[in-house]
Write a structure and sequence with these properties.
binds flavin-adenine dinucleotide; 441 residues; globular; alpha/beta; NADPH-cytochrome p450 Reductase, Chain A, domain 3; Elongation Factor Tu (Ef-tu), domain 3; binds NADP nicotinamide-adenine-dinucleotide phosphate; six-stranded antiparallel sheet; Rossmann fold; 15 strands; five-stranded parallel sheet; 18 helices
């Protein structure tokens, strides 16, 4: 089956331990989470990091005055708070990118600039209601998920993937509908991939109203809801106790209906400041600032690809790094999509940023992308690389990262006067020396 959300594994990522913990985690979510007593819903995990319970002092064990914080992780996410949710695009933009600030106070979570934050989202309640209606149910039917009984509505909102239909559900519909067209679709990978693009579980249910399931047998065919990762756009030194994200909302029209990305719109539209937001830190040890703070860095990050570089710049400023910093950013229009404009201009003014090059793809007759700036400034780029700069790329994996890579080879051929083979060897060497690092999605 085609992989429609390529950055998340197809199969359920939850261990038995996580399933058990999540059962407790989500218990009573809908009724209690907004009561302001969210913290009580999320007891810290036991196990590692917890002091021995009870009579440690009497047994002569050292008892710390302040017990160490529990180890929050993917299997035990921290119930954080979303403190700030601010649009970064001006009115009239085709994009909706949000600057989010999440309070990690009391979590004991630490991160380095370049790491990502894992977020466990919830599905859109309006979509869940439409799905329940289409299935002809009420929503309060009890179902069992990972051994825990809960109302169907809660399971669909907080526990299950209800966007892309999984293979098991498609097979069940093919069998129960006796629809040869669907059976045929399932036989060919590409045809199925094309059919599924922009379609969700509700589409399937609406397409076959005569096909009936029991609630439990239906949910048994769905996959667990999965976390999403976001590059952290803050610096632990400049922003202690908090983590910032730069999230592009996924919204698109397909087959006559507005579709919403689960996690990006959960964060942007549905997560209230008083709601516990389950998060964990996902270390990204291959995308870090150079240990030697004198090393120059070149950051290429169009669109939301700017996220880790905002964190890098705050970090370099906070550590007093003397290495030069060059950012190449781009998006559709300067007037509406210049993300973090004030902050970047501030970094230029205070000397944190040595260069800022911009590429606005839709402001002129011709598209201008970040790789055009690389080619334009080939000589400077080559000089920085010769001076030992680390080159970072973040953002779209499908097209941008590939085209930037091609531009890098061109730069080495033109400004570096290298043959095609020598340019390829230069790039290989950069990679081996961890001086060409990519965080693309
Ligand atoms: C390491 C890492 C770092 C990341 N950092 C960031 C970041 O800093 N900022 C950020 O915004 N994102 C980032 N992402 C992406 C992020 O994890 C999510 O994938 C993204 O927010 C979408 O998730 P969602 O739940 O909102 O959408 P989903 O519900 O997962 O839906 C997305 C899916 O919708 C489908 N789709 C989207 N558009 C269309 C369309 N026009 N037509 C048909 N189908 C379509 C595609 O199948 C797509 O995969 C990062 C990803 C990784 C792996
Ligand atoms: N997997 C997911 O669910 C998911 C979710 C969100 C984002 N993403 C990926 O993350 C990317 C970032 O999204 P975003 O909205 O922040 O930015 P984006 O779509 O990458 O757009 C940022 C800028 O890059 C330009 N661009 C387009 N193609 C390019 C190319 N081949 N080379 C260089 N620049 C190019 C865009 O121009 P034009 O728009 O004018 O072409 C725009 O000016 C998306 O493209 C998407 O692939 C994935």
């Amino acid at each position: 089956m085609p992989h429609l959300v390529p950055y998340l594994p197809d199969d359920a990522p939850f261990s038995a331990e996580q399933r058990a913990w999540l059962n407790g985690f989500f218990a009573g979510w809908s009724t209690r989470a907004r009561s302001g007593d969210g913290a009580a819903l999320y007891p810290p995990p036991g196990g590692d990091g917890q002091p021995p319970a009870g009579d440690g002092q009497a047994r002569g064990w050292p008892v710390p005055a302040d017990p160490p914080p529990p180890h929050y992780s993917r299997t035990h996410p921290f119930p954080a708070r979303l403190r700030t949710n601010r649009p970064l695009n001006a009115a009239g933009s085709a994009k909706d990118v949000r600057h989010l600030e999440i309070d990690l106070d009391g979590s004991g979570l630490t991160y380095e600039a370049g790491d990502a934050l894992g977020v466990i989202p919830q599905n859109c309640p309006a979509y869940v209601e439409n799905l329940i209606d289409a299935l002809g149910w009420r929503g309060d039917e009890p179902v069992v998920i990972d051994g825990a009984s809960m109302p169907l509505r809660e399971a669909l909102q907080t526990r299950l993937t209800i966007t892309q239909p999984p293979r098991a559900l498609l097979d069940a519909y093919a069998e129960r509908s006796n629809d040869d067209a669907l059976t045929h679709l399932l036989e060919d990978r590409q045809t199925l991939h094309d059919f599924l693009r922009g379609r969700d579980v509700l589409d399937l249910v609406l397409r076959y109203p005569a096909v009936r399931f029991e609630p439990q047998s239906f949910v048994d065919l769905l996959r667990p809801l999965q976390h999403r990762l976001y590059s952290i756009s803050s610096s632990p030194r400049a922003h202690p106790g908090e983590v910032h994200l730069t999230v592009g909302c996924v919204r698109y029209e397909a087959h006559g209906r507005l579709r919403k990305g689960v996690c990006s719109t959960f964060l942007a539209e549905r997560c209230a400041p008083e709601d516990p937001l389950p998060v964990f830190v996902h270390p990204n040890t291959t995308f870090r600032l150079p240990a030697d703070t004198d090393t120059p860095i070149i950051m290429i990050g169009p669109g939301t690809g700017i996220a880790p570089f905002r964190g890098f710049l705050y970090e370099r400023r906070a550590t007093g790094a003397r290495g030069k910093n060059w950012l190449i950013f781009g998006d559709q229009h300067a007037a509406t999509d210049f993300l973090y404009r004030d902050e970047l201009e501030g970094f230029l003014q205070d000397g944190t940023l040595d260069r800022l090059d911009l590429a606005w793809s839709r402001d002129g007759a011709e598209k201008v992308y970040v790789q055009h700036r690389l080619r334009e400034h080939a000589r400077t780029l080559f000089d920085w690389l010769e001076d030992g700069a680390v080159l970072y790329v973040c953002g779209d994996a499908a097209r941008m990262a590939r085209d930037v890579d091609a531009a890098l080879h061109d730069v080495l051929r033109t400004a570096g006067a290298l043959s095609e083979e020598a340019a390829a060897a230069y790039v290989t060497q950069l990679k081996q020396a961890r001086r060409y690092l990519r965080d693309v999605y």
